[in-house]
Amino acid sequence: MRIITDPMELDQFRGCAFVPTMGALHDGHLSLIKKAKGFGLPVVLSVFVNPEQFSPDEDFERYPRNLEQDAAFAEGVGADMVFAPEVETMYPESPPEISLPLAATKPKLEDAFRPTHFRGVCLAVARLFDLVKPTYAIFGEKDYQQFLVIQQMVQNEQPRWKKLQAIGAPIIRDDDGLAMSSRNAFLSTDDRSQALAIHKALREPTEQKMFDLLDRHGLDVEYAVIRDEATLLQPVDGKPVRSLIAAKAGSVRLIDNNGLGLLP
Length: 264
Fold this sequence. Notes:
Blueprint: E1 2-4, E2 17-21, H1 27-37, E3 43-47, H2 67-76, E4 81-83, H3 87-90, H4 110-113, H5 117-132, E5 136-140, H6 144-156, E6 165-169, H7 189-201, H8 207-216, E7 220-228, E8 241-249, E9 252-261
Parallel strand pairs: 1-4, 2-3, 2-5, 3-4, 5-6
Antiparallel strand pairs: 7-8, 8-9
Helix pairs in contact: 5-6, 7-8
């Protein structure tokens, strides 16, 4: 498995299927690589822990890093190359201003509780798109609002990335229903048991029932909502909806979501 840091070495992979990550790979990430492999193109995985999407009180320094292990995992499911740029490569000057799409500012979900997050995401992903020049970019739907933000950014910035398509991939869950996340490594046994209520709550038909279930299990709830699936704004009759939750189990902040189809 090649691990490269120099963007000049990316030329031979132009038009690839691309999986951007912050490393700490788990089966959820590996499912993205497998989906990328299905396009019949070279598969490039990036590993970049993006300082611009962490607020001062978040866990940037604690975020797990093991590039060699990540590369081995990626190779095992068919990735062709790992791009691991340095911060200086990603941001050779002070990070520029960037126009955020509506999904990054209007829903008042992640954008409300992590106000600098999507600016950092868009800065890093836009820079990676400019360097890698992929045809497809695959993102997990666990970070559903983030996926919509990136989809809208790609649409808004055309023809900057020409025929690039941002593709979503289903959430991968452990056997107990907990959505796979790099942050799960920080959960104690009790925290994990508590966190299982999130998946149960996502299947409730009303926001009040979602909140009540989470509260009974002692989770610190930031939001538990049902929104229009395409916009994450208030539901519209006759259009699919999605439930979304952000809550803390112990000190670990977890997010998850679930498509509910049409409300009765």
